[in-house]
Amino acid sequence: MMFVSFIVLIGTVLTACTGGEESDADIEVSTQTQEEIVYATAQDINDMNPHLYTGSMPAQGMIYESLVENTEEGIEPLLAESWEISDDGTVYTFHLREDVTFHDGEPFNAEAVKKNIDAVQANAETHAWIKLSTQIEDCRVVDEYTVELALSEAYYPTLVELSMTRPYVFISPNDFIDEGTKDGVTGFHGTGPYMLTDHKVDEYATFTANDAYWGGEPAIETITSKVLPAGETTFLALQKGEVNFVFTDDRGVDTLDVEAIDQLVASGAYQLIRSDAMNTKMIVANSSQDESPVSERAVREAIWHAIDRETIAEDILDGSETVADTLFSSNIMYADVDLDRRSFDLEKATAILDEAGWLLEDGSNVRMKDGNALTMTLYYDSHSSSQKTQAEFIQATLIEAGVQLEIVGEESTSIANRRSTGEYELLFNQTWGLAYDPQSTIAAFTSEASYLHTTSGIAEADTLYQKIEDVMVTTDEDMRQNLYADILEIVHDEAVFIPISNGSLTVVAPTELEGVSFKQTQFELPFEHMSFE
Amino acid sequence: MGRYIVRRVLIAIPMLLIISFLTFLFINLAPLDPAEVVLKAQGVPTITDELMAQTKEELGMDRPFIVQYFNWLIASLQLDFGSSYVTGKPVWSLLGPAFLNTFKLTIVSSFFIIILSILLGVICALQEGKMMDKSIRGVSFFLTAIPSYWLASMMIWFVSVKLDLLPTNGMTSYQSYILPVTVIVISYAGIYFRNVRTSMISNLNEDYVLYGRACGLPEKTITMHILRNSLQVAMSIFGMAVPIILGSTVVIENVFAWPGLGSLTVRAILSRDFPIIQAYVLILAVAFIAFNTLSDIITAAMNPKIRNDL
Asked: Do A233 and B257 touch, CB atoms closer than 8 A?
């Protein structure tokens, strides 16, 4: 053993010493031609109960399906072939596909839909974040393949929320415990293209193609989710071919850094695929902090002008994200609104501050007004190395405009806590992402747990909240478009959400893998469309 | 000897109680509401006041601190550490297999560390000051100084990727043990063999060695006597090697994706899964105290003088 250790070590050190001369393209990647996808993930798939929130979303996306699907072209049929909405917008009648069975052979029908929706509603407190859960009054079986969903009032994002990865997806009623799912389930049988066939906690999970899938058996026979906590190991496992697929995880964290991805792509064995913009990374400014300069619109606007987004996107984020000029990118529904761009312009920032009465005294580098210094605190997630670098960079440019920023790194839970209690001036955050935007992020403007403190200090707060209430219940498409435009204009003018960059989903896959595409959420991938050349 | 053992074990009990109380206290001092932590760990997107109240009641968090502590302690003594905040599964069902995986790694590593330490310690002591002694100490100093994280990555790259001899990660076959065990042995053997060496050298200068040589005893017999005496000292150090390795496999497990205690706890800490963290700290404390007690007892058995010191 001793000698093996020493020989291996000395060999390693020697090779490491000479390895520096190797160019990126020389890295050998020994992916054999494989017919299966093995993806690396930092965490176990956890409890796959689709009516709770601990399971891995990409894995749940393979097993479970919803009534409808959110696509680029809008809402499309999935388990429901068609649907009608009553004139007053409160009753949705769904006509289900008749050729669907759960993985355990149980038929998928109106009864199964009702049982599932009832199970979700039985745990309503947990689902309060999804507004539909507060609107559903009843789910009725009309006939074997027809089901009616009755709402307390018209709620336009109903179909969008029914299309989400959870909770309104369907698990075989045979898996229920005590007629429900809130206390756990006995198995994980969905209707989706893949079945969970093997799971070793904290090691791997295997999903096998569902040969009885109503949409046709998927081309890739097995998909394995392998738990690899360290990015370096993932990189090495990709080089060896033990793992052949990686993608941005649920929390938006890329396990591989940009350099590692470049090396893999340069080897010719892997391709890099990036989705369109999926979310917006931003700094949230607390307009309701009366004591703080951040409550002043001019100050927020000046900060916006003093952030060099180009440099952040290109240098700090290595080009992996694009510059964001507005809260939502224009590919988000209802967000293609013409708003003034506030470009990086330090002179403009100083002019705005001068005009607002924040003046620089001789010999000082921090502006003052009525005896108060222009000093604020920015909180960032201490686990995110890029947020820390961005915070330091922003701090350095803001001081040039006479604004002193203190930066504090905290746990993400503590930051979320600050957001809900209002104990902050500025903090990093991100929108909920495609499919959830704009409605979920905008609904959160009025929620105490989210952005209420951010928005409540602005002059037009009451108008804003009224418009948000109206937009969720209006059934008139034009009116909805106009209301969203107004809402976005108000928060844009008030500069409470200072956009930085647009993030996207990243996939590194074998070169010969075809059909890699994205869904309308940043949380899952359509594996069933993939195949090897 | 019997009395010594009883007294030694009795001392361990209050230590365990103090540690268990501190573990519980520190975690409850975290600046977040535990109910909120539970809900966040479960990935509930938005937390309402009603949900918080409901969760507190379900988990008994609405009771006074001291009541919560005693409930936890009594349950823990029956190996019931509650349920994971994240998965909802009993902590023991998660910790059990992870503990076993780490224990396997620890035992195999400790075995090689002990063998290698004795071997190198003896060689160095017998060659004291010579080239062999100096080179072994020099190499071991160099190896111990290498961060295990880096060493592990380099080994995977060379042995698994370049030479294609072993798997890069996981715990699938006996081959999976080779790299992690090698890294652990390299990191620790360097420390332990020095203890054996020092102890051997001090024994070499004892009168009984001189007497033995004067009597014409074969060199081999003398060396065996020295070794036996030296190992008495090294015993307590080796005793502690097991819990030390048990508690420090975090880095190795992360790099090699070894489904053990280290990986489990890192994830528990990141998601603030307090019941797992509490159980982990308690298990490690028990391991430290148990191995410490055990090595004291063994040393006392080998050296009667120590028995009277307690």
From this structure: yes
Contacts of B259 in chain A (CB under 8 A): 200-203, 227
Residue of B nearest to A53 (CA): B43
Instruction: Kindly state the percentage of chain A with pLDDT values over 90.
Output: 62
- Model confidence at A475: pLDDT above 50: yes
Tell me, yes or no, if A216 comes closer than 8 A to chain B by beta carbon: no
Written as one letter, the residue type at A53 is Y
CB contact under 8 Å between A447 and B46, yes or no, is yes
* Structure-block tokens of residue A164: 């989400």
DSSP three-state, residue A151: strand
Non-local CB neighbours of A394 within 8 Å, separated by 6+ positions: A283, A306, A307, A378, A405
Q: Does A25 touch chain B (CB under 8 A)?
A: no
Ordered alpha helix ranges (H), chain B = 2-28, 34-41, 49-58, 65-77, 91-126, 131-145, 148-155, 175-204, 207-214, 219-247, 250-255, 261-270, 274-302, 304-307
Which residues in chain B are closer than 8 Å to A444, comparing Cβ atoms?
46
Strands A270-274, A506-510: pairing kind: antiparallel
- Give, in degrees to the nearest 5, the angle at Cα B278 between B277 and B284: 90
Given B94, B161, B263, which is nearest A239 (Cβ)? B161
Number of Cβ within 10 Å of residue A371's Cβ equals: 5
Q: Tell me, what amino acid is at A117? A: I
From chain B residues 262-281, the ones with a CB under 8 A of any chain A CB are 263-264, 266-267, 270, 272
Q: Which residues of A touch B94 (CB under 8 A)?
A: 201
Q: Give how far B273 is from chain A: nearest CA, Å.
A: 12
Average pLDDT along chain A? 88
CA B252 to chain centre: 13
Subunit contact A240:B159, Cβ cutoff 8 A: no
Q: Does A7 touch chain B (CB under 8 A)?
A: no
pLDDT for the residue B157: 93
Residue bearing tokens 């609405």: B62
C-alpha–C-alpha distance, residues A201 and A47, integer Å: 10
On chain A, the residues whose CB falls within 8 A of the CB of B272 are 413
8 Å CB contact between B227 and B220: no
Using an 8 Å CB-CB cutoff, list chain B residues near A16. 154, 158
Question: Which residues of A, range 432-491, sit inside 8 Å of B by Cβ?
Answer: 444, 447, 449-450
Which amino acid does the sequence have at A182? K
Distances (CA, A) of A511 to A264, B94, B219: 10, 38, 67
Residue A29 has a pLDDT of 56
Q: Nearest CB to A54: which of B42, B153, B155?
A: B42
10-residue mean pLDDT profile of chain B (310 residues): values are 84 86 80 74 72 80 83 85 83 91 92 90 90 92 89 93 90 90 90 86 85 86 84 76 84 90 84 86 87 83 69
CA distances from B16 to B19, B91, B177, B283 (A): 5, 20, 33, 10
- Kindly state whether B122 is in contact with chain A, defined as any CB-CB distance less than 8 angstroms: no
CB A265 within 8 A of CB A271: yes
- Chain B residues with CB under 8 Å of A450 CB are 46
Q: Residue A288 pLDDT > 90, yes or no?
A: yes
Both structure tokens of B246: 């048990």
Confidence of residue A434 (pLDDT cuts 50, 70, 90): confident
- In this prediction, residue A202 carries a pLDDT of 87
| Helix ranges restricted to H, A20-92 | 57-63
Nearest to A233 among B169, B266, B270 (CB): B169
Residue B247 CB-half CA count within 13 A: 17
Q: Indicate if the pLDDT at residue A263 is higher than 80.
A: yes
Q: How far is CA A343 from the centre of its chain?
A: 26
Structure tokens at A471: 């937009």
